[in-house]
């Protein structure tokens, strides 16, 4: 403060050169952030980093006085393109692939949800209603872009090529699970597909994703990172740290918020007071877009444009995709306790990403009832085949719980491992060891 006032006085007396020298000596931030030209100093505040004008109005900024950031969309609810040049013209093949992916995910969700209800797997999370955010965004990425997910992004991984067998094996924790049965169901990961393994502790993926994007930038790799998260996770401290680091380090990362209206039972009206998640973007100095997450084409265009900003400007982008979680939060939740059936029905019947894309296809004669019927049967057959195969497969050896976690097994894990082996030596007959790889004779 003292230095700033002294500088201004010096400048008033025309001692600009002296001032500049003093400034260079006293504070590098001042010289870096403030335009110290005499004529500007009277007009504008000289605070480091300031872009403001002076005002004599004592007026608080109140977000309720501003309209919400608009929601970008390409199609209306009837699948009609709104602006003539709005259609990304992805072509019949690509659109059909998107539609088949979205509906396949839907079918897989139904089977695995029921499987949990029947006690065959321990846990599951569906993506009902959010299929457009998954497929629209992942289709706009390059296959070597790195993905950090939260947990409700199975469609993103499906688009990358994760097979039904791989999904099922993970949920069953069988011998073909890439995670060797060490994670709860839906905690997928694939090194080959550049999809970082899910850790469902909220928002942990966000600072990690920023670190990864910074590393990709330093490598000059031409790759970017996309980080998915829910509007609930956005309230975590890690989310704010991640957004600010990404902005100040100019990281090539897309923050993709799936705003599905709920964080388990907490509705968005209790989650934040400002203009959603997009409303925070300008505060971080980040290019920001709010998009209709149920409009797959709009999500595609938004993500493709964000990717270009990341690469061409080496800057982060925040996308808030507005959607609705039609299913329960997870198999541990019963959403009828906190929302009405009518509310859910509205989104299911009037604003569903799958039916909207289908209408778009039907208007172009790319899809009809017969194709739908055939695909429904075929997709169900594929899902059931993978489901039956996964259930039959044996589990990994219990040793896998301990190995391959650290580079070398640390003493405390060695101790636990030996203790478990000793236990199984005496009481193995009480466990279904035959179902575990290489343990049938234990
Ligand atoms: C740090 C942390 N706190 C709480 C939880 C419990 N939890 C799991 S999911 C969830 C809600 C997250 O909501 P949102 O981010 O909106 O994602 P959505 O489930 O809606 O996709 C909560 C509170 C957690 N996993 N981690
Ligand atoms: Mg949510």
UniProtKB/TrEMBL annotation:
Q: Which GO BP terms, alphabetically?
A: branched-chain amino acid catabolic process
Concerning SUPFAM superfamilies, the annotation shows: Thiamin diphosphate-binding fold (THDP-binding) (SSF52518)
Query: What EC number(s) does the entry state?
Result: 1.2.4.4
> What residue intervals traverse the membrane?
none
| Compartments, record wording | Mitochondrion matrix
Naming one, the record's GO cellular component terms include: mitochondrial matrix
CDD domains in the cross-refs: TPP_E1_PDC_ADC_BCADC
List, separated by semicolons, the cofactors it needs: thiamine diphosphate
Q: Which reaction does it catalyse?
A: N(6)-[(R)-lipoyl]-L-lysyl-[protein] + 3-methyl-2-oxobutanoate + H(+) = N(6)-[(R)-S(8)-2-methylpropanoyldihydrolipoyl]-L-lysyl-[protein] + CO2
The Dehydrogenase E1 component domain is annotated at 100-398
Q: Which GO terms describe its molecular function?
A: branched-chain 2-oxo acid dehydrogenase activity; metal ion binding
Subcellular location, principal: mitochondrion
**What are the record keywords, sorted?**
Metal-binding, Mitochondrion, Oxidoreductase, Potassium, Thiamine pyrophosphate, Transit peptide
**Could you tell me the superkingdom of the organism this chain comes from?**
Eukaryota
Q: Show the InterPro entries listed in the entry.
A: Alpha-ketoacid_DH_E1_comp, DH_E1, THDP-binding
Cite the Pfam families for this sequence: E1_dh
The coiled-coil regions, if any, are none
Protein purpose: The branched-chain alpha-keto dehydrogenase complex catalyzes the overall conversion of alpha-keto acids to acyl-CoA and CO(2). It contains multiple copies of three enzymatic components: branched-chain alpha-keto acid decarboxylase (E1), lipoamide acyltransferase (E2) and lipoamide dehydrogenase (E3).
Q: Which family does it belong to?
A: Belongs to the BCKDHA family.
Protein name stated in the entry: 2-oxoisovalerate dehydrogenase subunit alpha
In the record, what lineage is assigned to the organism producing the protein?
Eukaryota, Metazoa, Ecdysozoa, Arthropoda, Chelicerata
